[in-house]
């Protein structure tokens, strides 16, 4: 039996070749091809994944534009989200965001392993202050252990979600926290993934002005002015997408106590996306490593020496050099 990690869940399958007649990743075989709703992969293309024994899961996923990381020895396969999941400018959909359609939303990505956890009360205040203008905060925790996030959500009234499998971070190409995305009433990107703070608690480290950022947010909510930022998310590279799948497998293995196997996948992820702190720092708690300790600061030094920015805000949110 193999565990399939896909679409935000875990499924047991008999092997990497799926028997004929089975539904695969939500797709069903029809006479003219594989279909999911109105979308279909025609038979002549699907033939590349079909064998006499069944359908090769990895080959089928690749037909859908989805990357695969498999560890046959450990009995686990992870399938990523499709490349180009949405139309240009459309915010990738997930359940909690869909409930807020018709409302302006600030998607606030945070984690208990980041100092940005101390910004949550300020985000809660903005949520309450601007609710009358048709606005909501939706905070997304990147904690791999949901319990780590829950203690920081006590008393919060805005919608929240814990992205323990990293799927939402994958959809929005989030490589560190705090990251914020603005989504308009029609479910389109008003401002892409930027480093944004709601307080100046760590301004000496990140050089960001929360006053500028929050003022810009208020202008967008009240006056509809989103500024000159791009209206599309920065797309991940193929290596970044594959790194996230290695991280998903590593998290699954760590929860199962298979530390050595998990470290192999963490090493692979770090080689593919050395800048992705959501992976490299985010998995430290599952490894029993202090995310505020020596290993984290060594990682910061490594990235700084390589000229890799830890915080990636647009210029209008950075500290005024004057």
Give the structure's gist in a few sentences:
With about 325 residues, this protein is of the alpha+beta class. About 30% of the residues lie in helices and about 20% in strands. The strands form four sheets. The protein has a five-stranded mixed beta sheet with strand order 12-11-10-13-14, covered by helices on one side. A four-stranded mixed beta sheet has the order 2-1-9-8, with helices on both faces.
Topology, element by element:
Layout: E1 2-6, E2 9-13, E3 17-18, E4 28-30, E5 33-36, E6 39-42, H1 43-46, E7 55-56, H2 57-63, E8 68-71, E9 76-79, H3 95-98, E10 104-110, H4 120-130, E11 135-141, H5 146-150, E12 160-162, H6 167-171, E13 179-183, E14 189-194, H7 203-206, H8 210-223, H9 238-255, H10 259-272, H11 277-280, H12 294-305
Helix pairs in contact: 9-10
Mean pLDDT across all residues, rounded? 92
Report the CATH C-level class of the largest domain: Alpha Beta
Please give the alpha-carbon distance between the first and last residues: 62 Å
Shape: globular
Could you state the order of secondary-structure elements as H and E? EEEEEEHEHEEHEHEHEHEEHHHHHH
Percent strand equals 15-25%
Task: Tell me the helix content.
Answer: 25-40%
- Give the name of the CATH superfamily of the largest domain: Glutaredoxin
Question: Class by helix and strand content?
Answer: alpha+beta
* Number of separate helices: 12
Q: Rg from C-alpha positions?
A: 21 Å
Tell me the number of structural domains: 2
Strand order of the main beta sheet, please? 12-11-10-13-14
- Low-confidence sequence ranges: none
CATH architecture of the largest domain: 3-Layer(aba) Sandwich
């Amino acid at each position: 039996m193999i565990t399939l990690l896909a679409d935000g869940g875990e499924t047991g399958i008999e092997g990497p070749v799926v028997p004929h007649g089975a539904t695969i990743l939500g797709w069903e075989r029809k006479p003219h091809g594989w279909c999911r709703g109105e979308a279909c992969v025609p038979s002549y293309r699907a033939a590349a994944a079909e064998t006499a024994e069944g359908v090769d899961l990895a080959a089928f996923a690749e037909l859908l534009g989805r990357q695969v990381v498999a560890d046959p020895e450990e009995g686990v396969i992870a399938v990523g989200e499709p490349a180009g999941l949405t139309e240009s400018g459309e915010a990738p959909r997930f359940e909690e965001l869909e409930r807020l359609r018709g409302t302006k939303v600030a998607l606030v990505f945070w984690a208990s392993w980041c100092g940005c956890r101390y910004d949550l009360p300020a985000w809660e205040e903005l949520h309450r202050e601007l609710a009358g203008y048709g606005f909501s905060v939706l905070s997304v925790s990147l904690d791999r252990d949901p319990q780590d996030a829950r203690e920081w959500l006590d008393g919060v009234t805005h919608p929240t979600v814990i992205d323990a499998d990293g799927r939402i971070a994958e959809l929005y190409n989030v490589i560190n926290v705090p990251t914020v995305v603005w989504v308009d009433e029609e479910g389109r990107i008003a401002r892409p993934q930027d480093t944004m703070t709601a307080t100046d608690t760590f301004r000496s480290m990140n050089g960001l002005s929360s006053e500028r950022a929050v003022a810009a947010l208020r202008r967008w909510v009240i006056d509809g002015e989103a500024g000159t930022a791009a209206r599309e998310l920065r797309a991940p590279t193929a290596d970044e997408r594959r790194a996230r799948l290695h991280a998903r497998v590593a998290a699954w293995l760590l929860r199962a106590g298979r530390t050595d196997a998990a470290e192999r996948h963490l090493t692979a992820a770090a080689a593919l996306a050395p800048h992705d702190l959501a992976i490299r720092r985010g998995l430290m708690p599952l490894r029993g490593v202090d995310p505020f300790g020596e290993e984290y600061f060594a990682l910061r030094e490594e990235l700084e020496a390589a000229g890799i920015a830890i915080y990636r805000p647009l210029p209008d949110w950075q500290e005024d050099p004057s």
